[in-house]
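Collaborator request, handled under Task 6.
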Amino acid sequence: MRFYFILTLALMAVACGPATDRGPVSVAIVGDEDDLFQSGVRLSTAAQHLRGATNEGLVTLDPAGQVIPAIAERWIVTDDGLSYIFRLRNSNWPDGEPITAAEVRILMEDTLRRLDGTSLGLDLEKVIEIRAMTGRVVELRLSGPMPDFLRLLAQPELGFVNRGSGAGPMVVSRDEESPQARLSALPPQERGIPAREDWEEVSRALTIQALPDQAAVDAFADGSVDLLMGGTLANFPMAQLGPLSRGTVQVDPARGLFGLMIRSESGLLSSPERREALSMAIDRTELIQPFGLGGWQSTTWLVPQDMFSPLQYPTSRWNDLSIEQRRTLAARRIAAWAANDGEEAVLRVGLPSGPGSDILFEQLSNAWRTIGIETVRAELGEGAELELRDRLARYSSPRWFLNQFNCSLDVGLCSPEADSLVRASLSLRDPAEKQALLVDAHAELTGKEVFIPLGVPIRWSLVRGAVSGYEANQWGLHPLFPLSEPTT
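Structure tokens returned to the collaborator:
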């Protein structure tokens, strides 16, 4: 079952604020002020959105999260699913030079090299060859079929940067002393599509900035921001304070990882059975109740159950045990370790700052206290034994989830055996054989207890009524260009 909910706290027919149907739209994305202007292939949420607006790749996403043309105007996929052939639109780079297949090949090969060592690089490992077939036709060959490959190509990190700039669909200007950027949509004819005479009159400019969470919510509340994006569970309680009379809180039907990465394999955490005890003790329904998020989908698995067809495992790992029975069993394991080791059962938990994290920490502490474990709060990166992992999926495949635990990423406990199984699946063409390897990899990681899954990630936005071109979607990416498009 797809997880989907949109929480509407308030909505006015005509919203207050600076935006009108024709005026500029002010956008804030939660983050540090410098996040917006990051370069390279490791991008913050703010930088992803700016990159997607100014540096198109072969394809991109629309507001609903569906794949649409970008630099490629159309494409075909061969019957075996191993070749994607793109025809580039007839348009130019900002310096006036035409966009050619040969340049696209070079730029994509360079991007793949720079992504080496990242989880996105692992996701793209099926790309084995890139060919410029003619002046405007480029082919990507894969080692094995990948039904969701186009969605992966639509990631902002795969936007092309040529001679220091991209090919739109928007251009950015910035005062170097200001944390804000101004985005203007390129006219249709400069994007290789038919001209529209009234484009300048009907298109809308955007201002965009990255702001700390409380500052972003305050800006929305006082009317200086029309659209706030990038909220997480860590700051979700802020969305319920103040701006209720001025906008709508929308929660993305997100997919991805939300849970605790195990960073240590010593002491209390040296045994998979005791690591499992931590997961068993959490009542995930109770965990989310203080947030008032109806419809949140909890999980006890690393890979969502519906990623495999037919289903490979039950809804919960411990369906035959009540939460009381699970906690009794978990407490026995912890008590046996404490009696044998002579140490107190204490764990440090690394969480981002924010009122939502405060609530989450209290809920985890209460759950683990029932099995004899005391918890200490730490910030992310401070060396805690457990750290929150909050990542949005980039495409629908078990492989994305499994790649998040690859040993090469060095983010926590891992399994070389699982990595080998995932790698072996890359060249398989039979879907059943491929799934069997991925199921085995999931079983290996689950058996080693490398992660404590909690549920789906939370991503929320505040959207004023005068904003059009925004939709909640499961990828948590909201393209900026549609916010500028004419509504008539």
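The cover message to the collaborator said: "The longest strand covers residues 127-134. The chain has 14 helices and 18 strands. Please let us know whether this matches your experimental observations."
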